[in-house]
Design goal:
Elements lengths: L2 H57 L2 H11 L5 E7 L5 E6 L1 H5 L8 H4 L4 E10 L2 E11 L1 H51 L14 H32 L1 H15 L15 H15 L3 H15 L5 E5 L5 E4 L1 H6 L1 H4 L8 H11 L8 H14 L2 E5 L3 E10 L3 E8 L1 H21 L1 H27 L5 H29 L7 E4 H18 L2 E6 L6 E4 L1 H22 L4 E11 L2 E8 L29 H11 L3 E6 L4 E7 L4 H6 L1
Parallel strand pairs: 11-13
Antiparallel strand pairs: 1-2, 1-4, 3-4, 5-6, 5-9, 7-8, 8-9, 10-12, 13-14, 14-16, 15-16
Helix pairs in contact: 1-2, 1-5, 5-6, 7-8, 14-18, 15-16, 15-17, 17-18, 18-19
Length: about 650
């Protein structure tokens, strides 16, 4: 895309945005004001007519009533008018026959009235607090609708004219800005073809003109440099023979075969420089000790790094410990001798309880070694620190082990997850309140019946027992709902325990189904009969599932689906492990954002409705469980799949 086109498109985009905002504000203000005034006018007209016919209705003077209705229908905006008695009998009516034939439904607002292009409104005929009938009437909305449409057409016409002017001015501006650029491009091609004497015609005094001046200076410099290089090449060819003798001397010095005398050190040209450099090289060999001291200073600087670092040699023994490592692990190092191995360090730490309570030390060491081969891993260090350790093999040196304190980072992550859970609980509050009201209503009615029977001395022991049993059942039902919320609201503890996938999926479905039901969204769940386990933290795993269900709910609401469906399905012991699939019939995910979906702070929701962290946290949680999560689009909506490795049943049950 050319610079000129970019300029035109940029200006046009700005103009389009401004015009769209102005048109939107204008249409909103005009439509809102006109529709409100018309609706208020309809209500006022109905009240005035009710007052006008009240005497005729009370006296059942149908002739006067018909005349009054006919007179009111002379107003062109009134579509129809009907007067009903308190029993619903039509006393008088006039107006559009088709409208009168339709069942009367009061329009709550202007937007609803636009469906049939008139406002259906009614009011009671009340005299001294007594209702003598009802006025039903309709006011046409076509005039207001036509005015709004006409205003929209005018706004669009102004926008088109404005965009046309912007395109013309943008083209002219782009032409002026790119004229000097074309000259620079032509000059660059000439230089690349070897024409170093090419000169660019400088026009103007702006930044592009200054660039053209610099380009000409560069071309002149390159031309002079090319001539100098040619001269130097000729001189070097002449001196090649002398260089051969000096190279022979350098070879003898590098092979430590002697300390030859270097010729031509008194020359003032390049040969003399090379000869003197050879002498410097010879003297440098005598300064190895000085280099060793420089190396020691480098190690001293490395010792100041805040991250813990220890280097083990090729024989497995410790060669270097920086200050941070020595200070943090002082209790362990006190019981170790110099030259300890990595395994000795870990064993001593286990014996002192520095890595938490470890029941099987050998199994812990084996698991640590396996995890170290796969990459970075976290170690819980007493009393409450978390270290991220990395082991790196370095050729010719050995193994470098580094450890970074990530306690504060993990605490922040847990706080973020807890905040997300609390937000989810808040979103589900309405549904849960509705679910709790059902058993509470049953309890209230049963208790009230018992009290009434006791007051009337008609209490029957069997009936009272049945009522109290029902109260107990409903109390247990409410307790289960509250217990689910209490368990879900607990803070994550950073544990890694076996998770019963079926139980977790069932709990999440029960927790989410109530809220979804209030939104006319059906949650379908399809789980195998057998059990399956995965390693992780149950609270965090269930939070991932609730996040996905919440996103599916938002997608369905945004798409305006009347019968929303969310499907939660599990397939255990597949080729890729345990597969959990969550799909919906919402609007799907835009193809251009699929690759960014799990990035932190990326969201497709409107500002204020999403932080962009839910899917990022879910991705990290599933990854910590050794699995992965993916998102795709299906024919009906979006689909998320979670793949989790299997935790052996014996290990899971034993834990």
């Amino acid at each position: 895309m050319s610079f000129r086109l970019k300029t035109i498109l940029g200006i046009a985009l700005i103009e389009l945005t401004v015009m769209a905002i102005l048109i939107g504000i204008n249409q909103f203000a005009l439509g809102g004001s006109a529709s409100t005034q018309l609706y208020e006018r309809a209500e006022a007209t109905a009240r005035v007519f009710a007052n006008a016919v009240s005497d005729a209705v009370i006296a059942t003077d149908l002739a006067t009533l018909d005349a009054t209705v006919a007179t009111a229908m002379e107003t062109e905006d009134i579509t129809y008018l009907r007067v009903r008695s308190p029993s619903g009998f039509v006393l008088s009516e006039a107006g559009d026959a088709d409208a009168l034939a339709m069942p009367f439904v009061r329009d709550p607002d202007f937007e609803t009235a636009t469906n049939d292009h008139h406002i259906d409104i009614d009011t009671q005929i009340v005299v001294q607090g007594t209702s003598y009938g009802t006025i039903e009437m309709a006011i046409s909305t076509l005039k207001v609708e036509n005015e709004i449409a006409h205003a929209l057409r005018l706004n669009l016409l102004v926008a088109v004219l404005g965009m046309s002017l912007v395109a013309i001015f943008g083209y002219g501006l782009g032409t002026v800005l790119t004229r000097q650029l074309h000259l620079l491009q032509k000059g660059a091609r000439a230089i690349s073809d070897g024409d170093l004497d090419h000169h660019i015609d400088v026009r103007g005094r702006d930044e592009l003109a200054e660039t053209a001046v610099c380009f000409n200076d560069m071309a002149q410099t390159l031309s002079r440099g090319q001539k100098i290089l040619k001269d130097q090449r000729n001189r070097l060819l002449e001196k090649k023979a002398r260089v051969s003798d000096i190279v022979t001397c350098m070879t003898e010095i590098s092979e430590n075969s002697g300390t030859p005398e270097v010729p031509d050190t008194d020359r003032d040209d390049e040969i003399g420089d090379m000869a003197r450099a050879t002498v410097v090289f010879r003297d440098a060999m005598q300064k190895v000790e000085q280099a060793r001291l420089e190396q020691q200073r480098l190690i001293s600087a490395f010792d100041q790094v805040a991250e813990q670092v220890v280097i083990f040699g090729l024989d497995g023994k410790a060669l270097f410990l920086n200050g941070a490592f020595r200070e943090f692990n002082q209790p362990i190092l006190q019981n170790l001798t110099c030259g300890f191995t990595h395994e000795e360090f870990l064993r001593e730490g286990c014996d002192q309880g520095q890595f938490g309570v470890i029941e099987d030390k050998e199994a812990w060491l084996e698991a640590y070694a396996e995890a170290a081969r796969d990459g970075a891993q976290e170690i819980h260090h007493a009393p409450d620190r978390i270290l991220l350790t990395v082991e790196t093999d370095v050729d010719g040196i050995g193994k470098v082990v580094s450890a970074k304190d990530v306690t504060d980072l993990r605490q922040s992550e847990r706080q973020l997850v807890q905040a997300s859970k609390m937000a989810t609980l808040g979103e589900m509050a309405t549904g849960i309140a509705h679910e709790l009201n059902q058993p509470l209503g049953v309890i209230r009615m049963a208790a009230s019946n018992c009290v009434k029977r006791i007051d009337r001395d008609k209490a029957d022991f069997g009936q009272l027992k049945a009522k109290f049993e029902r109260i107990g059942e409903q109390t247990e039902r409410a307790a289960r709902i509250i217990d689910q919320m209490r368990v879900f609201g607990r803070k994550a503890e950073g544990s890694n325990d076996p998770i019963d996938l079926t139980a977790s999926l069932t709990n999440v479905a029960q927790l989410a189904r109530t809220q979804l039901h209030t939104l006319d969204i059906t949650l379908k769940i399809d789980l195998p009969d057998e059990q399956a386990f995965a390693m992780g933290e149950k609270i965090l795993f269930e939070q991932v599932l609730l996040n996905l269900i919440s996103n599916a709910r938002d997608a369905i609401e945004e798409a305006g689906i009347e019968q929303g469906i969310i499907s939660l399905k599990a397939d255990y012991n597949q080729k890729d492990g345990h597969v959990i699939t969550l799909s919906d019939n919402g609007s799907g995910i835009p193809e251009h954002v699929l690759d960014k979906l799990f990035e932190p702070f990326f969201t497709t929701k409107e500002p204020g409705k999403g932080t962009g962290l839910g899917l990022s946290i879910s991705f990290g949680t599933i990854q910590d469980m050794g699995g992965c999560i993916s998102a795709t689009n299906t024919e009906t909506g979006a689909q998320f799949q979670i793949f989790l490795p299997d935790a052996e049943v014996e290990t899971a049950l034993a834990s």
